[in-house]
Amino acid sequence: MAIPLDYQEDQPHDQHHSSNSFSFNAVLNPSNPLGFLKSAFNFVSQKSDLFKNDSAEKEIMSSVRSIKEKMKAQEADQKKRLKLAKASAKMATEKEQAQKEKEKEKKLVPNNGNGLDMENYSWGQSLQDVTINVPVAHGTKSSLVLCEIKNNSLKIGLKGQPPIIDGELYKPVKADDCFWSLEDQKSISVLMSKRDQIDWWKSLLKSGPEIDTQKVEPEPSKLSELDSESRSAIEKMMFDQRQKQMGRPSSDEIQKQELLKQFMAQNPNMNFSGTKFR
To answer: For residues 33 and 40, is the Cβ–Cβ distance under 8 A?
Structure first.
């Protein structure tokens, strides 16, 4: 693209020349910049005594070097800014990753019951139930046990003493299907039925330490005892739960995506790339 320029040259005033201004009209073709410079130099040679001066070539080259140095400085500054921006973005990504790793480290490895061993009690779980074992002094009578199980809260302890467990449950339970018993007068055993029997609890209480549910391992023996239909349903729920925790599609979504791919392959003129399934 040609670029029209309107250039005015101010002549310095000296004893030989009067002060005059001349208009320089030219078109710059970016593909031929030297042609423009030749026109400019020709104009200057006609309207001034610049090229009669022995130092003209030196002064022009000095101007060229100055412009090139300025361009190099600008390019270097731009590269420096880009490098700093990339470094900043990398640091932000590494910081975010470190934070995720730190959060992950906070989550504890579950015990053999897929729960956690605490200082004064332990708990475990299956997809359907939560079990709690609270050791007490040998010879404790059941009349001394305090166990209050509500849909969203739990309180366990001995009468006249501070509660051993007291707080809001991680998720609701079916209070009417929950039971407790005193085993051999030395431990309180609690069985609670989960309301939503498709999720692994990260903790017993909302205020308690969390386990890494991705490391939960259901007992194979219990799964093997189920009929094939129930076992498939449980395995599907376990798979979907892990997929959900990792932000990946569920088994149903994967199946729908595969069907969509087959349909698109059979109908190449139709575009369903933005289709989402829920």
So the answer is: no
- Tell how many helices (H) and how many strands (E) occur in the chain: 5, 10
- H-helix or E-strand containing 187? strand 187-193
End-to-end C-alpha distance for the chain, whole angstroms: 52
Q: Tell me what percent of the residues of the chain surpass a pLDDT of 90.
A: 38
Residue 108: band (very low, low, confident or very high) from pLDDT cuts 50, 70, 90:
confident
Segment 174-181 long-range contacts (CB within 8 Å, at least 24 positions apart): 175/149, 175/150, 175/151, 178/149, 180/145, 180/147, 180/149, 180/156
| Six token digits for residue 204 | 């017993």
Question: How many Å is the maximal CA-CA distance in the chain?
Answer: 124
5-20 residue pLDDT tens:
554 444 444 444 445 7
Counted residue by residue, the chain has a size of 278
Q: Is the pLDDT of residue 158 over 90?
A: yes
Segment 107-117 mean pLDDT = 91
2.40.50.100, 3.40.50.720, 2.60.40.790, 3.30.70.270: CATH of 116-211? 2.60.40.790
pLDDT of residue 110: 92
Task: Say how far apart CA 242 and CA 212 lie, in whole Å.
Answer: 11
| Nearest to 191, CA basis, from 121, 127, 129 | 129
Domain boundaries, the chain: 3-52, 56-106, 116-211
